[in-house]
User: Fold this.
Amino acid sequence: MSRPGTRTVHPIEQESYAILRSRVDTSGLPPLTRAVVERVVHASADLDYVQDLACAEGDLERGLAALRAGAPVVADAEMVAAGITSRPVLCRVRTAQPRPGETRSSAGFREALGEVGHGAVWVVGNAPTALFTLLELDARPALVVGLPVGFVGAAESKAALRASGLPSVSNASEKGGSAVAAAAVNALLYVEEAQ
Assistant:
């Protein structure tokens, strides 16, 4: 686990950010929004995320405060958890006991809530069903990073997240995935380390 001030930015990452900033101007974005947008673009090499991501600075501030206070981070998939390297992440997809008709990711979120309680940071990069399940639970999250990918339910689950009023990061399109979901959380964790 990284300690504050110990993250060394590799020259390749520095060059990647320079290229990104030469192709799109993100300087007008609020600081945390810019950090998240740039980290997601960096992770995906997809400049469309600059316009596609939906996040509010106040929601990101709340998420950052929760992370600084030690809030648990819960992921829908092990690939998401593996991408968040500076903080332990709870992922119950492997051990989940789904009910009839329930996906393992949904069951994992339902079961994780009993372990983490209210105020966690929830991260969805894979399963729209997990995001729909989270919206049905009384999780009272500090932040939901809802960036599932796919043609079945992904855009709809993200629209439902935005309509819920929960503090969130999402996007309007069907794209997303484990790498971009982890990147959004890492952006906040890297800000946390720098301050």
Remarks:
- The first helix runs from residue 11 to 23.
- The two ends are 16 Å apart (CA to CA).
